[in-house]
Write a structure and sequence with these properties.
Rossmann fold; NAD(P)-bd_dom_sf; about 270 residues; alpha/beta; 9 helices; single chain; about 15% strand; Sc_DH/Rdtase_CS; 7-stranded parallel β-sheet
Length: about 270
C-alpha cells in the first residue's frame, strides 16, 4: 500500500536520508524531521513530495507542535519512524554523565515523546505503524558503550511493550543493526571501536534503510546482519559463555589499541 504519510526523525543523517529517498521512490509521502532547518530544506528539495519539519524530539513542546502541524495538514499519520539519536564511545568512567543523559534523551525519550504524541491519533483511526531504529547494542552490553547500550535497551523494552498493549491496531517494528557506516564514527574506522568479527560486518546505510522499510509491512524485531542475529540467539541460549567470549574479544582489541598507541622508542603516545 503506497501513498502513506510517513514521518522520519533524524532525516538528514545517513540512515534517515536513505529511508526518505526510498519512501519517495515507492510513492509514499515522507515528512522529514530534524533540528537543522537548512539541512532539512536541502534534503526536501532532493526528495519528491518531501516536506521539511523542524523539531527537537527531546523537547516535549516541540513534539506537541509538530503533531498539531501534521494532523492539521494531512489529517493523519500512517507511519512513524523513530530514527533520531546519537552515540558516544568511551569507558564507563570516561564519558561525562551529561552524555549519558543526552543519549537517553535522544535515543529513548525522543522516541517516547513522538510515539505517545501520535498514538492517540493512530488509535482514533484504528491503525498505525511505528518503526524504531534501535541497535544490536540494545540486545547486549558492550565495553565503551555503556550509555549507548542502556538507551537502546530502554528503546527495545518500550517498543515491545507498545506492541503488546496496542496490537493489532498499532504494529511496532524494531530494527537492530550492527555497526553502520555513518557519521556515528566521526571518520574513524569501526575497527578502532569493535573487535574484527563485528567491525567486518559494518553495514552501509542503504541496507539498513531497506530493512527499516520492510518492517513497515512486516513488523517485528529484526537483527542485521543475520550473522549477528545468530550471535544474539547464542547469547540467549548460553549467556555466561557469550559474556566470556565478548569480554575476550574486547580485551584483545584493547590490548591491540594500547600496543599501537605506545611509541617503541619512548613508550609515550
Amino acid at each position: 500500500m503506497n501513498g502513506r504519510i510517513v514521518l522520519v526523525t533524524g532525516a538528514t543523517g545517513g540512515i534517515g536520508r536513505e529511508i526518505v529517498h526510498r519512501l519517495a521512490a515507492r510513492g509514499d509521502r515522507p515528512l522529514l524531521v530534524g533540528r537543522n532547518e537548512a539541512s532539512l530544506q536541502t534534503l526536501a528539495q532532493e526528495v519528491p513530495g518531501g516536506e521539511a519539519m523542524v523539531c527537537d524530539v527531546t523537547k516535549r513542546h516541540h513534539v506537541e507542535q509538530l503533531v498539531e502541524d501534521v494532523i492539521n495538514r494531512y489529517g493523519r499519520l500512517d507511519v512513524l519512524i523513530n530514527n533520531a539519536g546519537y552515540g558516544r564511545f568511551g569507558g564507563a568512567l570516561e564519558v561525562p554523565i551529561e552524555e549519558y543523559a543526552g543519549m537517553m534523551e535522544a535515543n529513548y525519550l525522543g522516541a517516547v515523546h513522538m510515539s505517545l504524541a501520535f498514538l492517540p491519533h493512530m488509535l482514533q483511526r484504528g491503525s498505525g505503524r511505528i518503526v524504531n531504529i534501535a541497535s544490536i547494542a540494545g540486545l547486549t552490553g558492550a565495553p565503551n558503550l555503556a550509555g549507548y547500550c542502556a538507551s537502546k535497551f530502554a528503546l527495545l523494552g518500550f517498543s515491545e511493550s507498545l506492541q503488546m498493549e496496542f496490537a493489532p491496531r498499532i504494529q511496532v517494528g524494531v530494527l537492530c543493526p550492527g555497526p553502520v557506516d555513518t557519521p556515528f564514527f566521526r571518520g574513524v574506522s569501526p575497527f578502532r571501536y569493535f573487535p574484527s568479527p563485528i567491525a567486518r560486518r559494518t553495514l552501509p546505510p542503504s541496507v539498513v534503510a531497506e530493512h527499516a522499510l520492510r518492517l513497515i509491512d512486516r513488523p517485528g524485531i529484526k537483527v542485521i546482519p543475520w550473522t549477528l542475529g545468530m550471535a544474539i540467539r547464542l547469547r540467549r541460549w548460553f549467556p555466561r559463555m557469550a559474556v566470556r567470549v565478548t569480554g575476550h574479544l574486547y580485551n584483545t582489541l584493547l590490548r591491540q589499541k594500547s600496543a599501537s598507541a605506545v611509541s617503541p622508542l619512548t613508550g609515550k603516545e
